[in-house]
Amino acid sequence: MSAVVEIPSALQRFVNQQKRVEVPEGTVKDVFASLLGRHVGLKEQLFDEQGRVRSFVNIYVNDEDIRYLEKENTPIKDGDTISIVPSIAGGSEGPGSDAGRSL
Questions:
Q1: Residue 6 maps to a domain
Q2: Bigger pLDDT: 21 or 91?
Q3: Which domain holds residue 26?
Q4: Distance of CA 95 to CAs 69, 88, 89, 92, 101, Å?
Q5: Is residue 61 part of a domain?
Q6: Mean pLDDT within 40-53
Q7: Reduced to 3 states, what is the DSSP secondary structure of residue 65?
Q8: Longest CA–CA separation in the chain, Å
């Protein structure tokens, strides 16, 4: 039995350009151990030096944020979808921007 991890386009280069990767059931921790075992370059993109999910990376199981479930111990069952969603931040100082202007 398996679940699927949806890979955002910014990270697909670390998983042979795949949009979706099948993983075995278990917990979120098990899923990422399997995924990172096959795609080692992905680890530093998702986890810090202490092995924690980076603050700008959000992980969802079937559209539910794991921070509000059981975190890395959230169970994963056949047919589940795990989504990796990097936070987007920043802005523009190009034409039309108010950056650097005083009121």
A1: yes
A2: 21
A3: 2-86
A4: 43, 21, 19, 8, 12
A5: yes
A6: 91
A7: strand
A8: 60
pLDDT at 102 > cutoff 80: no
Q: Tokens 């949806």 sit at which residue? A: 6
CA distances 101 to 23, 56, 91, 93, Å, are: 50, 29, 14, 10
Question: Are the CB atoms for 45 and 15 separated by under 8 Å?
Answer: no
Number of domains in the chain: 1
Question: What are 48-89's pLDDT values in tens digits?
Answer: 999 888 889 999 999 999 999 999 999 999 999 999 999 876
Q: Is residue 9 part of a domain?
A: yes
Residue 102 in domain: no
What percentage of the chain carries pLDDT values higher than 70? 85
Phi, psi for residue 71 in degrees, rounded to 5: 50, -130
CATH of the domain at 74: 3.10.20.30
